[in-house]
Amino acid sequence: MNVMIVYAHPSEDSFTRHVRDSFLRGLEDAGHTWELSDLYQMNFITDMSEAEYLREAYYRMDLEVPEDVRREQEKLNRCDAVAFIYPVFWTEAPAKLVGWFDRVWTYGFAYGENRTMRPLAKGLVLCVAGNAREKLVESGLLASMRRVMLDDRLSDRVREKDLIVLDRTSREYAEERAARWDCHLQTAYRAGYTL
Ligand SMILES: Cc1cc2nc3c(=O)[nH]c(=O)nc-3n(C[C@H](O)[C@H](O)[C@H](O)COP(=O)(O)O)c2cc1C
Fold this sequence. Notes:
Helices cover 45% and strands 19% of the residues. By secondary structure, it is α/β, with parallel strands linked by helices. It binds flavin mononucleotide.
């Protein structure tokens, strides 16, 4: 498969970067090819312009989709699967990735009549959380994250989808982070290998 990875972390000095690299190694060892959108490194614009808003809100359907958005859409349509890799910020993806959805999921591509987005066979969300998984489950926050990412954003655009949370990775709890480091990276590798 050809896999698009949408990656959003502001720093290379992060655990999430190791997760990305392990996932890519897994993909390569399984013989998959991949294309990466590293949103911070690309300086991907995540604020909608007024023109984009007017188009998406059905005021001005005649307006064109911007070139940088078009490039992301073309990349997706060259792929059979998509993976999102990011740290959890306030129970969400970083604003950089949320803004990517605002801009790239355009009318006529991801929704509306005669969508041009090719349905993807697989979608994976690999997110890195500071909190413990049990806490995220008990509070209902993990269910919220799954609902937004899988049921709304990916929805019927992706046939088979899952969200994996790699937990207790905050530097505030160095021991817990270190104890889980290898196991989480193996999970990321396996997720790439078995995609
Ligand atoms: C602004 C901000 C908000 C965060 N919000 C959450 C959160 O809501 N839930 C959570 O589990 N971790 C949260 N974290 C922790 C991040 O997920 C943290 O960056 C990650 O666990 C550590 O991985 P890293 O070394 O890749 O950054 C937050 C971190 C930041 C900087």
